[in-house]
Amino acid sequence: MGTIKVAINGFGTIGKRVADAVDAQDDMEVVGVTKTGPSFGCELAIKKGFPLYCTFDDKERISLFEKKGYGCSGGLSDLLSIADVVGAENLEKYRSAGVKYIFQGGEKHNLTGLSYTSSANHMENLNAEGTRVVSCNTTGLSRTLVPLFEHCGSLKVECTMVRRAADPGDSGKGPINAIKTVLKVPSHHGPDVMTVKPEIEINSLAVAVPTTIMHVHCIIADLPKGHGLSTESIIEMWSNTPRVIIMNGADDRIPTTAEVMEMARDIGRKWGDLHEIFVWEDGVKLVGDRLYYFQAIHQESDVIPENVDCIRALMGVEEDWRKSAEKTDSAISTYYST
What CATH number labels 136-297? Predict the structure, then answer.
């Protein structure tokens, strides 16, 4: 197969990051990105050299781009006609165009009947017509729970999600001076893990807090008898898992999410992103068969490399998720450092 032609339908918080990650790969090409109308995001797309399209096929809407001085290559149908795979909304249009599609975690699993995260079910998505890359929280849970499940053969999990109230660029959400409980029990986060790894028994609670920089998961996992693990061996397991970072909050002076994100900025990540799941080493403790730990999720970026791996799965070009992850992460690292 030649270069995979990828369309990004929606060039916002996730879309602009996915576009960069795809652009970094030597087996993929961004053939176009869409905006609903002329805005600052158009400037970014043009600066990057990504062909700009309108989310709609309406000629009047398309003409608005030209009036504002943005070269628009056409509507969504024009973009789909040259793409192999597309990310975002508008399922029926994708199917009619015969284009493979990837939805994001904000959509329901039953929209596609198939969900994806690299470590959990890459093979199940191989050559599929379309799927949904699960949310940032589900991705984070999968990264640390799937290795445990694969070692133990079974797992029972209870977790509390301490959620950021909004993304940094979203000024229209709260709470401002409150902790907001999510009164749907369980919250959707735990059961969503079971869309990619149904064998893991998991429930979750969630609260939203007035911060914009990361989610924190407080996790209790019951391991089966005879698991043969220790606190140290679990930390080593995660250290050898792609896209997981283990650091000591006290020794490394990273006690809060503020320092975690400062670290991401210091290592030169674009937008200060942290694609990896951050686990506090000194917050991991196995007591008998019960494991306690904390992890932090950068909600804007942990799903970005998953989208790239997902493209390879749908196109059937790489069966081994670890090989895809290595290729994806190496390309992104090189792209961002140049």
Answer: 3.30.360.10
